[in-house]
Amino acid sequence: MNVCRIAIGLLLCALSLLCSAASELHCVWEIHGKHNTVFLLGSIHVLRAQDYPLAPALQNAYENAKGLVMEINLGELDEAALQTDMLSAALLPDGMTLPQVMGRERYAHASELARAVGVDLSTFDQFAPWFAAEAISQTQLSQLGFEPQQGIEMYFLGRAQHDHKSIAGLETAHDQIALFKALSLDAQADYLVSSLSQAHDLPREVGAMVHAWQRGDSAWFEQEMHSEFGSDPALCDSLLTARNRKWLPKIEALLDADANYLVIVGTGHLVGPNSVIDLLRKAGISATQR
Questions:
Q1: In whole angstroms, what is the distance from residue 27 CA to residue 33 CA?
Q2: Phi first, then psi: what are they for 269, rounded to 5°?
Q3: Closest CA relative to residue 67, chosen from 249, 252, 263
Q4: Measured between alpha carbons, how far apart are the two ends of the chain, in Å?
Q5: Mind giving me the DSSP string for the chain?
Q6: Which of 45, 159, 210, 265 is the most exposed place for a label (fewest CB within 10 A)?
């Protein structure tokens, strides 16, 4: 992250603190059908135990919903099948290695960046670049105390299972794995280098992200999405925009029900141009942040 980006981020944080003091917003939006309400909750997929309890606004959204809808239905995951699918997608074809995929100079640069955060990139020489990037990021997050088991989805999944609420997914785990596998190896290599370039800033960045999420600071997330994907529209479309469009009819269909629903997706899907919120508004469905 450059100095300009840091300055902008700090300015947005300062402004949002003033706004939050007055409005007490959260990363949850409401849309209304004729007979029901659908709550759209922006998630952080990994959190720490210390980030709980959640704000009352989030708890109220869950309590007022009859059913839970997430990106994928975590309650139906077949872990053995998922591991097989993941390994199949993560491994490079026979005879191909990460140094070959990345090229000598780019691999050397990536190795240097990885060493700076205590990772030996050669550990991943048989794996696709996207998998190396995700595995390294997850290891870093785990070292900081952030775990998927503490994430918003797992928290509300546990509650929904206990309360016998309906649980559904907008897509499958296979769909998510296929997103990365569909990227060209060159695009994956760039993604790995970009991820490693930001690895040193991860502790500060993830702390700022949690702070912004707790304040409902959608402007901060929109700025981060622009910084992350602004220079790579194709990656943005693959990982965000195309999925938002795919989810939209399923979310709109919930508005025809009599019961309320809580939909949980990554916060990045709910902010900025072509987000779920933006697409809903373009379809004539207003969304109110709470």
A1: 20
A2: -80, -10
A3: 263
A4: 30
A5: --HHHHHHHHHHHHHHHHHHHHH---SEEEEE-SS-EEEEEEE-S-B-GGG-SPPHHHHHHHHT-SEEEEEE-GGG--HHHHHHHHHHHHBPPTT--HHHHH-HHHHHHHHHHHHHTT--GGGGTTB-HHHHHHHHHHHHHHHTT-BGGGSHHHHHHHHHHHHT-EEEEEE-HHHHHHHHHTS-HHHHHHHHHHHHHTGGGHHHHHHHHHHHHHTT-HHHHHHHHHHHHTT-HHHHIIIIIHHHHHHHHHHHHHTTSSS-EEEEEEGGGGSSTTSHHHHHHHTT---EE-
A6: 159
pLDDT tens digits, 217-274? 999 999 998 888 877 888 899 999 999 999 999 999 999 999 999 999 999 999 999 9
Q: Which structure tokens are listed for 268? A: 């990045």
Strands 166-171 and 288-289: unpaired
pLDDT tens profile 156-181: 999 999 999 999 999 999 999 999 88
Question: Where in the chain are the domains?
Answer: 3-289
